[in-house]
Amino acid sequence: MNQNHKYEMLFWSIALPGFGQLLNGKYIKGIIFVLLEFLINVLGSFNEIIILSFQGNVEMAIEQTNYQWLMFYPCLYFFAMWDAFKDAGGGKEPYSFLPFAFSAYFVTVGTIYSSNLTLFNVLLGPVWLPILSVLPGLFVGFLLKRILTKKLIS
């Protein structure tokens, strides 16, 4: 299998959860992920809050957000990415799931605090704070992976 295939599946899953699974031939899993993505997206008003946030109307985005549904999105999103990456031959290194898991965790926490946390006196809201939360999630995940891998080798 092509070494880049795992990254192709990862990027298709970033585009839409379930696409990587469909391309990997995991049709039932792929359809379930796509349906869950649409369900959470619609019930959490995610497309609407993305549009409002990109247009600079963060306060209205916060009002439109259904946080009870939107909080499911990060876990679905990052698990679908991990699953497609793993099924395409990635994730053979020990603890390679950690960056995905910690990104899901940090983005979920970012979603929880997105309605009242500001950065430089700017309210970030339910799109921008979760997006920024990916970075510390990746950092912690890769750091823990490196630490645990070194302990495993020692």
Automatic annotation (TrEMBL):
Does the record carry Transmembrane as a key word? yes
Q: Which domain of life is it from?
A: Bacteria
Residue ranges annotated as transmembrane are: 31-54, 66-85, 97-115, 127-144
Keyword Transmembrane carried by entry: yes
Question: Which keywords does UniProt give here?
Answer: Membrane, Transmembrane, Transmembrane helix
* Identification of the protein by name: Uncharacterized protein
